[in-house]
Amino acid sequence: MHSGVASPADRRLSALIRHLEGASNAMDSDTITASPTSGFPGARNSVFEHVVRAPEDPILGVTVAYNKDSSPLKLNLGVGAYRTEEGKPLVLNVVRRAEQMLLNDSSRVKEYLPIVGLADFNKLSAKLILGADSPAIQENRVTTVQCLSGTGSLRVGGEFLARHYHQRTIYIPLPTWGNHPKVFTIAGLSVKTYRYYDPVTRGLNFQGLLEDLGSAPSGAIVLLHACAHNPTGVDPTPQQWEQIRQLIRSKALLPFFDSAYQGFASGNLDADAHSVRLFVADGGECFVAQSYAKNMGLYGERVGALSIVCKSADVASRVESQLKLVIRPMYSNPPIHGASIVATILKDRNMFQEWTIELKAMADRIINMRQQLFDALRSRGTPGDWSHIIKQIGMFTFTGLNSEQVAFITKEYHIYMTSDGRISMAGLSSRTVPHLADAIHAAVTRVV
Ligand code: PLA
Question: Do residues 220 and 169 touch, judged by C-beta distance below 8 A?
C-alpha cells in the first residue's frame, strides 16, 4: 500500500472483502439457527426471508437501467460492447463463415470436451498472444487451458495461485476493471492496489506505480492490463513497460496479464501483445488470461484461455494436471461452440487474414469516434482540456466527469455510463456524438 492512510478505494476494497466474508458467515449461522418448521410447505415465511436485495453490478447494471428507459434518445455507453455506425451489435463476417462451415460438417458431434478444452484452440491461442515463434511454446513450457472467456480465465488462474503459490497477495492497478477485486477475492487471494492513474494529468502515475510495486513483498502477484487499460485507456510506453519488467523480475514478483483487448487498442494483434511478449522473452514465468469477447465479437459465447508460462516443460505439465483439479468441480469442462469458431479462424490463413481486417475496422471506428467527440467538444467551446479523449486508447474514454455529472447526463439526456465517468467509445456513432457532446457541455457548465 502506498501510504499509511487507507485511500477511499482501499476502504471500498476492505468493505467488499468484509461483505463477501459476511455473506458466507451469515449463511453458516442461518443453517444452524433456522427454525425446524420454516422449511415446511405452507409455512408462513420463506426460508430465504433473511436474504437482502443485492445492488446491481456497477457495469452490467447500467444496461439494466438503460433497458428500462423508454426515451427514443437513449444511448448505452456503459458496458464495453462494440456497435456499428447504425448502433447495432456486430457479428463478424468471418465468424458467420466459420459457423456455417461448422454447421455443414456433419461429422461434428456434441461430446464433452476434455477438462482443459479444445486442444487446437489452446495451441492457437497461446501462439496468438505469445507469438508464433515464441521460444516458450517451442520448448513446451506453456500450458494453456480453455476457460469461460476472460473472466473465467482470471478466476481459474486466481484459484490455482491460491492453492499452489507461496504468496497470496495480488496487486491490482488503481483503478481497474471493477470485477478484478471480486474475482480474485473469491478465488482465495488477498487483494491490494498499486497506484496507476493520475487524475491531474489524466495519464499514468508512473512514479507511484514504481514505488508501490517496489515496496510490494517479494513474490507478490501483479495484475497487469496487457493493453488498453480499463477503465482509463492509459497504457505505459514501451520504455516504461521495460522498466516495469525489470522491477518485477528484480523483486521476483509474479506477473499476471489480463489480455481482454488484443487487437482492439491499435488494430494490430502483435503490437497489442507487446507487453506480454516482453515478459516472456526474458525466460521468466507469467500468467495470461485471454478473451475473445471483444476482438472476435464472441461476447456471449464465453471463449477465452488461461496460459501459464513456466520454466520447464515438466513444471508446465504438472501445473496443467492441477489446473484440471481446479476446473472439474467448478464447471467440469468448457463449451464447445465458441472455441470451435476461434480454432476454425485461427488455423486457416485466409480466414485469419479476413479477421485481422475486420478487427482493424472496429479499432479504426473507435479511434474515429474519439476524434469526432473531441472535435464536437472543441467546437462547442466546452470548458476544459479534452485532449485525453484522443490520447487514451482502447474501448473506453475515462472522461473525468464526476458521479453527479454522470447522474445529470443520464437523467437529462438519457445517456448511460458507469458512475466513474467511463464511456464506451464503441457504443458511439457519428449520429450520436452531437447528443453526447451537448450532454457533456451541459454537465460541465451546470453541474460542478
Ligand atoms: N478483463 C477486462 C480488463 C475487461 O474489461 C473485461 C470485460 C474482462 C476482463 C472480461 O471479459 P469477458 O469475461 O467477457 O471475456 N469488461 C467489459 C464487460 C467489456 C464486463 O464488465 O463484463 C466492461 O464493460 O468493462
Answer: yes
What rounded mean pLDDT belongs to the chain?
92
How many Cβ atoms from other residues are within 10 Å of residue 434's Cβ? 14
Nearest to 396 by CA among 197, 221, 210, 223: 197
Cell 487446437 belongs to: 120
Asked if 238 contacts 281 with a C-beta cutoff of 8 angstroms, the reply is no
Distance between CA atoms of residues 217 and 162, nearest Å: 16
List, in sequence order, every residue forming a beta bridge with 75; answer none if it has no partner: 415
Angle between helices 337-347 and 119-130 (to 10 degrees): 60
290 lines ligand 1 (CB under 6 A): no
Q: Whose CA is nearest to atom 17 of ligand 1?
A: 80
pTM here is 0.91
The response to whether residue 122 sits with its C-beta less than 6 Å from ligand 1 reads no
Q: Annotated catalytic sites, by residue?
A: 177, 258, 294
With the C-alpha atoms ordered 310, 314, 319, 324, is the resulting torsion angle positive or negative?
Answer: positive
What pLDDT does 340 receive? 98
Residue 197 pLDDT greater than 70, yes or no: yes
137 has a pLDDT exceeding 80: yes
Whose C-alpha lies nearest to ligand 1, atom 21?
59
Nearest to 399 by CA among 380, 381, 377: 377
Please give the Cα distance from 436 to 448 (Å, whole number). Answer: 18
Q: In a 10 Å sphere around its CB, with 0-12 CB exposed, 13-18 middle and 19+ buried, how is residue 344 labelled?
A: buried
The DSSP bridge partners found for residue 309 are 142, 286
Query: Does 150 contact ligand 1 (Cβ within 6 A)?
Result: yes
At residue 9, does pLDDT exceed 50?
yes
Angle between helices 433-446 and 349-380 (to 10 degrees): 40
Using a 6 Å cutoff on CB, does residue 295 contact ligand 1? no
Euclidean distance between CA atoms 381 and 414, whole angstroms:
22
Hey, which of 125, 151, 225, 362 would you mutate to test ligand 1's pocket, going by the most ligand atoms within 8 Å of its Cβ? 151
